[in-house]
Each structure stands twice: as C-alpha cells, then as structure tokens.
C-alpha cells in the first residue's frame, strides 16, 4: 500500500511516498481503507523531532482518518465491511494515518455521519475531541454559561465555538477582524478583534476560557474569569507558573491532552448529523503532497483544516 | 520496579521476577501503582506461545489491573494522584500488568468502586467487559428476555449471570451440580446440570445464548434459541461453520472479542457499587508466584478468578 514515511527527523521534505505492507488487524480491530487523513500541527512537531512522541524514524505519521471498513476481524461487532468510519487511532502512540490502510481498535472509531464527506470527517477527530474533552468532559459547560474561546477561527477553535453554541452557551471568541464573519457564522455571539481590542480588559464574568492560542493568552485570561471560573488550556498544559497564577487568583486551571474515545466521536458525529457542527476544510491535497501540507500547517496562516486525500 | 517477565515461550516456569525500569507515562496517560493483577486464561495462551498476540519474548504479561494513581501527566483531568482505579490497558497489545507500575491511557481506566477491594477489581475488567460487551453492547438484552449462559460458574459466566440479572433478564445457566448454589446466589433463575441433563433438549425459547464454554456447546445451542434469537460466543468467534449453521437455522450469530472501554468499566463499577455485581476471587497469590497462578489457570478446575497481589 502507499504510505508516507520519513527516514529521519527534519523539515517537510523528509516526507516521502513509499510502499509498505498492509497492516494486519489484531483481534478487536478493523482494517480501514483510508479516504482522507487530517494533518494537524502535532504531526509537524513529531516529523521535525521537536516532539519525539513516537520514537525514532522510520515511522508513518498521522492520526486523523476517515474511510471505509475493508475487513473486520471475527469477534468485532460494532462495524461491517463497507461501513464509513472516522477516528484518531492510537494517539499519542503511532497512529500511521498517512497510509492507504490502517488497523484500528473498533472502539476508537465511530460511524461517519452522512452529513460529512470523508475530507470533513478526517478534519474532525483530533481537533474536535480536543474541543469536546475541554468544554464537555472537563469544563462541563451548561446552557447559559459564558464561554470565551481564544482562536475561534482556528482548527480547534472553530469546532469549539460550534460545540459551545450547541450546548447553549453564550460564546465569545477572539479572532482576527477578517475572520469575524466566519466565527459569527459558526454561532459566536461576540467576536473580539485581538489586534484592536485588549480582551483582558474588554471581557468579564466568563465561566470558562478555552485557550487554543497560548503565549500570554492564559495569564491575560485570569481577569476575564469570574471567581471560581475555569481556564482550560489546550496549549500550556505543563505551565505550572500559569496554574499557580490562576489558582492564587481563585480561578481553576486545567490543561488538556486529547485522547481517543468513541463516546466523544459519537457525540461529534451526532452534532454533525444535526447540522450543528461542520469542520471547515481549507486545503485538500493528494497524499503525495504531504510535504506541502506540512509547509502549510507550519505556516500557521491557513484558514480551515488541512486534509490529505487518498 | 518488580515485574514478571519471560525470556522464551514455554510452560509456567518461564515466568520470572525481574527488576525493570518504571514505565514513563505519555501525554494522556497516568502511572498506576498496581495493587493487584488479574490472571486470565489468555495470559497462559500468550505465555506458552499458543497465541503469540504480543510478539516475541521478553515481555511482561497481564492486562487486568487495580491500583492507585501515582502520577498524572499534565493534560490529564480524569484522575488525580491517590485515586483508586481499575482497567485492562492496551488489550490486545502488550498491557504489562504483572508489574508494580503500569502507564495507562486515562480513558482506559475507571474509578474503582469502594464496594470492591483491589483483588476483586483486578478480577473484573477482562472477564466483566467480555460479559458486558456480549450481553449489553452486542445482544442488547432487555428486561424479560430469556438468556442462557453457558458456564455460569466460570470467570466470565459468573459475571454474565449477574449482569443479565441486573438487566432484568430471566437467567438460565449451565453449571456443574456442585456450583448450583453458587449460580443461584448470583441470581440465576434456573440452573441446568450439564452432566445429568441435555440442555439442548431441556431449554427452549431463549432470546440470547452466551457461550463461554465452546466445544459442541455452540451447535447444541441452536435449537434452544427462538427464531431470530442470537448466539453470542466468546470462544468460537472464528468458527465460520458454526456461524453458517446458526444463520441457516434462522438464528443470529456474533463472535465477541473483548476491548478496552471506559464506558463499560464505568457501568461495571456502577453495578458493583449498587451491590449487583461481585467478582468472585478464588485464589490470591503474591506476584512472585505468577508461575503457580498459571498452573492454576491452566488447570481449568479453579473456582473463582485468580489474582496476583503486589
């Protein structure tokens, strides 16, 4: 099968198309014919060696996938050959998603909703589960809560805005002025242009801040939170000084690392099926252009998620 | 840390106590100090080489664990140090449970209910999830359904009887006569002594058969099932001739392989907390006696689950 591998850590051009044997699914697993594979910033960090999460090369990058079940090992009952599925297998261990076939534990997959094509579904798992596990599993947002999402135009942010809105929250988001139409279209009640407005002065009485930006955003979010409110950061999860500052101000702190979970995937699929969640795909490239996809994801200047097609 | 390893496939005496480095949990994982590790028949099959599921030795066997969270990687919010947890990490890949410490994805653990001690909780995941995923996830049993469980006195069976009863089923079970008091104490409505009674003639109009025994039990269960009823087998999942025989008789067939799932673990914990599910521990041995535990599990003549203590 075709797959993208790398022989060493390095810049995007270490990524190469190669021919590898099809993986053999183990008991409890299914073999998925991948139709689209999402490209996330963490893929670039692993590729370059900045975050050597899955050991030394050679390896196959990629976690987000959407595709069709090719084969189920006897003993698996959740899916049948031909079912359309999506997921984020094995994260944070090697997921091997940039490939024609992947073997995936059945409970790390969910049915792809018909409302999404494979490109959209491949854009959803890692970013969507990050937003879901931040807002729902961790912050337990409820109707009427005031939620501030930093980077509402970004990969995690644009899904977080929709998830928060679907839960009945009042959604405020920081985004560049030229993305305000986009984030309002996603359901944001208020959009703050971070270049012309200091959100740390302009926003108050927020129950939950979700930070997908980092830098000084976490610290500047403290006065935004009501007493007892919670800062959930998908970026500065190891920042003990930030945690201390948040807690000494009488607010709560949670760093979040995304994790595979069929429950969250099913919830995201249900929202998508109800037309309450649409991942925005900005760039779709053929698998062979994985290097170009990495140049794009590292630029940080794309709009919408980047997906490889197979 | 102390752990049980083996240098080659072979009889129980290949199992040896060794000193290994503590595992380093990855992002999204927690480090668990193991207090008890369950011993399952599949452990013996992997040890001997009969089922080379996790590659070549050396490796550390064991999936079922119960223990205390020692450390959480920043980004994990489901648990804190000191929490009591149980689970079946990484199955069917290497779980490394026969050891003082294991690194476990947070969503492959659930809180240990206070109603169970560590020995009982370590006896629960693999057998309990097998029963749960068979009866609830796959057969979707409902109140009033007639369920026949083969081997109601066994490791999976004694948990299946309790789970079926907790779901309001009418529970029939095959068991040796000297286990009838035991299975009735678990809630079985009818116990059939398979040595004096041919269950395939004595039992009729069953909605679901769960087979934990194998051999000819699957085929002999066909006339027991009502038309449209389902045979769920945790043993003969690859038996295509059995599947064909069941389906040509107008019944449904499902083979089942257990899979880690926090949802199932949480459901089992809730049942245990409500005193509706108690794993029966027959033998508790110190970690160093892993070889003896394997002799016991291979004898097939124990009553109750076998657990190693640390």
TrEMBL record, chains A, B:
Ranges annotated as spanning the membrane: none
One MF term in the entry's GO annotations: oxidoreductase activity
Span of domain Enoyl reductase (ER): 10-308
Coiled coil: none
Listed SUPFAM superfamilies: GroES-like (SSF50129), NAD(P)-binding Rossmann-fold domains (SSF51735)
Classification via Gene3D superfamilies: Medium-chain alcohol dehydrogenases, catalytic domain (3.90.180.10), NAD(P)-binding Rossmann-like Domain (3.40.50.720)
InterPro entries, A to Z: ADH-like_N, ER, GroES-like_sf, NAD(P)-bd_dom_sf, YIM1/Zinc_Alcohol_DH_Fams
Name the record gives this protein: NADP-dependent oxidoreductase
Natural source organism: Actinacidiphila bryophytorum
Taxonomic lineage of the native organism: Bacteria, Bacillati, Actinomycetota, Actinomycetes, Kitasatosporales
């Amino acid at each position: 099968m075709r797959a993208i591998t790398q022989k060493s850590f390095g810049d995007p051009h270490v990524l190469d198309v190669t021919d590898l044997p099809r993986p053999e699914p183990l008991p409890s697993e299914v073999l998925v014919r991948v139709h689209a594979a999402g490209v996330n910033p963490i893929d670039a960090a692993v590729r370059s060696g900045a975050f050597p999460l899955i050991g030394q090369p050679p390896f196959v990058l990629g976690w987000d996938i959407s595709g069709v079940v090719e084969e189920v090992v006897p003993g698996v009952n959740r899916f049948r050959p031909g079912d359309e599925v999506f997921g984020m297998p094995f994260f944070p261990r090697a997921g091997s998603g940039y490939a024609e076939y992947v073997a995936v534990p059945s409970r790390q997959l969910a049915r792809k909703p018909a409302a999404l094509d494979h490109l959209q579904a491949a854009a959803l798992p890692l970013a969507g589960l990050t937003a879901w596990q931040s807002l729902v599993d961790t912050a337990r947002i409820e109707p009427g809560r005031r939620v501030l999402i930093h980077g509402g135009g970004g990969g995690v942010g644009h899904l977080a805005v929709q998830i928060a809105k679907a839960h009945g929250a009042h959604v405020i988001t920081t985004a560049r002025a030229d993305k305000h139409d986009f984030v309002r279209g996603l359901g944001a009640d208020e959009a703050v242009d971070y270049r012309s407005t200091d959100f740390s002065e302009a926003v108050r009485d927020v129950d939950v801040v979700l930070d997908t930006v980092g830098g000084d955003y976490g610290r500047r979010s403290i006065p935004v939170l009501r007493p007892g409110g919670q800062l959930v950061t998908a970026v500065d999860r190891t920042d003990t000084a930030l945690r201390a500052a948040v807690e000494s101000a009488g607010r709560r702190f949670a760093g979040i690392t995304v994790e595979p979970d069929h429950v969250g995937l099913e919830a995201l699929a249900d929202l998508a099926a109800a037309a309450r969640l649409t991942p925005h795909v900005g760039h779709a490239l053929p698998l062979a252009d994985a290097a170009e996809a990495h140049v794009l994801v590292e630029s940080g200047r794309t709009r919408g998620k980047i997906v490889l097609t197979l």
